[in-house]
Design brief:
alpha/beta, Rossmann fold, 5-stranded parallel beta sheet, 14 helices
Length: 383
């Protein structure tokens, strides 16, 4: 019998679609809830467990009650040991307490759904010598302890339960200062390392940090995009230094880490939340395009830091109207790994997958694999 520990941070990622740049701290959580924020962590945890559901007769899950895991485990019919309760308000202390209790109870692997703040809490609770695996559910996921998607996390567990040889090693826990992040400053900090099962392309890389040094390439990319911009088209500019070059070419200040909107070369909205974008789309009769870039090192283009561009928005705009820009240097650093889409909507993720055009310079573009279709292919090849 494989004994699996499970912790769900039920409020992880609640600030993402609202443009709050994170979900750390009760003040941010209350602000998000007051604005109608919804966390997708429970459903992402369920998506991971769905992968191992056919093996549930061989698995016992150890968890806390309610939204921290018990509800999902019960709904899927797994054998369970419920060993604790969360407080009225889910907090870092709940995660730490649950991790310590589950480790003491005795499990083969602890799986947790959350973001970088949750990874920090897990590290604080159990250190670097106990095997864990993250299900990505937060706003900021710079750490290397997360699978590339909930389904990939489930696949790693499936292999372990099936007795496959799975490498295990240390991966970094990193987090940023959310307050500085909201002010446009990225201050990433190394907190330690967690012991994680490392299985090929299923585990995400640590996010690359630092400024892009290929300034001329960024200018070329920006010049290419600006040259083709249409006057009646609403452009939603995603976060990142690569997309910022477009705004700089236009002479428009941007939020760097948020989603901005421009129309007729003028700023229409800055650092927009999901509801703000939906309102703009409802009021605009002309064409709409979204411009996004990749997270260096990881390869994610959707689902990391730009959750404001929700599945609903991506569908309204249409896959054909999403422009991807990136330098060839960043693409090369992926070493052949595909660009990743983790929108919290598996159907949309598959719709996005395939070979897509990536603008890499002035009148210069490449075709490159995008989306979870590549990960699914890995699953098929290794079954």
């Amino acid at each position: 019998m494989f004994r699996l520990g499970l912790i769900v941070n039920p409020l992880a990622g609640i600030g993402g679609p609202l443009g709050l740049k994170g979900s750390d701290g009760q003040t941010t959580i209350r602000k998000a809830m007051a604005r109608g924020g919804v966390s997708h962590a429970p459903e992402r945890a369920r998506a991971a467990l769905d992968v191992i559901e056919p093996l549930k007769e061989r698995i016992e899950i150890v968890c806390f009650a309610g939204d921290m895991g018990g509800n999902i485990v019960s709904a899927l019919g797994f054998m369970a040991q419920v060993i604790g309760l969360s407080n009225d308000e889910s907090s870092a202390e709940d995660t730490i307490r649950a991790a310590k209790a589950i480790q003491s109870f005795g499990v083969d692997l602890l799986v947790f759904a959350g973001g970088d703040g949750t990874a920090r809490d897990i590290f604080q609770a159990i250190g670097s010598e106990f095997p864990v695996l993250g299900i990505p559910a937060g706003v900021k996921m710079h750490s290397g302890v997360y699978a590339v998607s909930p389904q990939a996390a489930g696949e790693i567990v499936r292999r372990l339960v099936g007795g496959k040889l799975v490498d295990i090693g240390l991966a970094e826990v990193r987090d940023i200062d959310e307050q500085a992040f909201r002010e446009g400053v990225v201050k990433a900090r190394y907190y330690g390392e967690l012991l994680v099962p490392r299985e090929g392309h299923f585990l995400q890389q640590v996010k690359s940090s630092g400024r892009e040094v290929e300034e001329l390439v960024l200018q070329d990319i920006a010049a290419d995009v600006v040259e083709t911009m249409e006057g009646d088209c609403l452009y939603l500019i995603g976060p990142g230094t690569t997309t910022r070059a477009i705004m700089e070419d236009l002479g428009i200040a941007n939020s760097l880490l948020g989603v901005d909107a421009i129309l007729d070369n003028r700023l229409l909205g800055q650092d927009l939340a999901e509801k703000d974008i939906l309102k703009l789309l409802g009021n605009h009769d002309g064409p709409v395009k979204i411009i996004i870039t990749m997270i260096g090192g990881q390869g994610h283009i959707v689902g990391r830091g730009n959750q404001q561009l929700s599945p609903d928005i991506l569908r309204k705009v249409g896959m054909e109207n999403i422009m991807i820009i990136a330098t060839k240097t960043k693409i090369t650093e992926l070493e052949g790994r595909p660009l990743l889409v983790d929108s919290n909507d598996p159907v949309l993720d598959k719709e996005f997958s395939g070979y897509r055009k990536i603008i890499t310079g002035y009148h210069d573009a490449i075709m490159y694999p995008v989306g979870l279709e590549s990960v699914d292919g890995l699953l098929d090849e290794t079954n």
